[in-house]
Amino acid sequence: xxxxxxxxxxxxxxxxxxxxxxxxxxxxxxxxxxxxxxxxxxxxxxxxxxxxxxxxxxxxxxxxxxxxxxxxxxxxxxxxxxxxxxxxxxxxxxxxxxxxxxxxxxxxxxxxxxxxxxxxxxxxxxxxxxxxxxxxxxxxxxxxxxxxxxxxxxxxxxxxxxxxxxxxxxxxxxxxxxxxxxxxxxxxxxxxxxxxxxxxxxxxxxxxxxxxxxxxxxxxxxxxxxxxxxxxxxxxxxxxxxxxxxxxxxxxxxxxxxxxxxxxxxxxxxxxxxxxxxxxxxxxxxxxxxxxxxxxxxxxxxxxxxxxxxxxxxxxxxxxxxxxxxxxxxxxxxxxxxxxxxxxxxxxxxxxxxxxxxxxxxxxxxxxxxxxxxxxxxxxxxxxxxxxxxxxxxxxxxxxxxxxxxxxxxxxxxxxxxxxxxxxxxxxxxxxxxxxxxxxxxxxxxxxxxxxxxxxxxxxxxxxxxxxxxxxxxxxxxxxxxxxxxxxxxxxxxxxxxxx
Length: 500
Ligand code: UN1
Hints:
- The chain is of the alpha/beta class and 500 residues long.
- It has helices spanning 3-9, 14-18, 41-58, 63-92, 96-116, 155-166, 180-197, 213-221, 234-246, 269-281, 298-313, 333-348, 382-385, 401-409, 424-431, and strands at residues 22-25, 32-36, 124-125, 132-140, 144-147, 171-174, 206-208, 227-231, 250-254, 259-263, 291-297, 352-355, 373-376, 392-398, 413-414, 416-420, 440-443, 455-456, 459-460, 467-468, 477-485.
- Strands 12-13-14-11-10-16-17 form a seven-stranded mixed β-sheet, with helices on both faces.
- A hairpin with a 6-residue loop joins strand 1 (22-25) and strand 2 (32-36).
- The chain starts with a helix and ends in a 15-residue tail after the last strand.
- Bound molecules: 2-aminohexanedioic acid.
- 2-aminohexanedioic acid is lined by residues 105, 151-152, 156, 231, 287-289, 448-450.
- GO terms for molecular function: aldehyde dehydrogenase (NAD+) activity.
């Protein structure tokens, strides 16, 4: 598979790939694969206006018919899975299996949203007044701005977009400037679905704005974008949400994670080992759900640690398009520098480091391949409490279960978590109100790799948003409480007398 053949298979023309100033490189070898046109803030405003016009038409289309568009999108994604999956690998460096997995998440959420399109249910509510009825109705909300990160360049868009579309909202997408090609490829797929759907799909229903931070700011400050859903770093989330808050708009935030796993004495260590390695080094440690902290009971620590270190030593690291490779490159050189800095700090804090450092420097001088690291920490120091977007797994020991929970929850982030234990008292305690404080809590699986059927997101610095399954659709609609008086009297609520 050449880079060029992947780009062509995704429908890119030579002119499209060479006409602009935004240089897009592949982390596989650091070479430039495109120079894209960047949108100016003025162009972004025009796109917002177009999306708003689309909203005025799309909200009139019945929800199950809107679902039909998402069904067609799912069909087109199925047909494009191999090509788009390879483009995800080319643009963000995750291994092909994970690129394909990301597209599968898109297909899955389309199926989910199709069913949801017939279930945008409200309640009927008992009125306290005679001859009155009350009901709750969910209405389309308006343009949904979606800001996504480089590490999951397409799936998070789809969790938002598939639901937003069936809920009656156009979607305006600002992808990471490090991963605009995958977004443009998805837009082409949307256009194929819309062409098959017909005239009910207004122009501007889905759009992609290519460029940097200023476009995110344009989205965040526009009153014509009532919902902004943002995935990315905590500082980005703070900036977006404070701008959106100024106009009292709605944010759905999915920010950093610093996900932990507790390994209890009763754990199935064979299973735990496999789960830990996938969760810690998958996507080269660049998932927001990556396992970053391992809290191991002192009685099994010396059994688990050497086996983990050994598994790390034999990890196949290399070109993510190649079969058998499990760890691809980091997104860019600055990520290696951040990893090195974190390891240095951990060492200064008393950590014992296994692994780390750049590899394949001769074969790929302009890429950022690293050896994943395990760091045995005496304590949960400040650096452990930070999210470093690289494959570093900090390990710590515990004696008492309560201490393990406290250590686990003792970080600013609250996305995902897990426990490896076969003791039902421990596993239930972990899932209870006094257990994990995260949005996602797993038993005997790692913290990453969530299915789309559940609500995805987390608490504290993770931002509190929920996307994808369960009732996350409500985040894309406005709730209206309607009261109807079908009597000839005018009784007032709360029994108030007001005679004129
Ligand atoms: C992300 O890293 O931004 O649970 C999302 C997972 C994936 C999603 C990760 N389903 O690991």
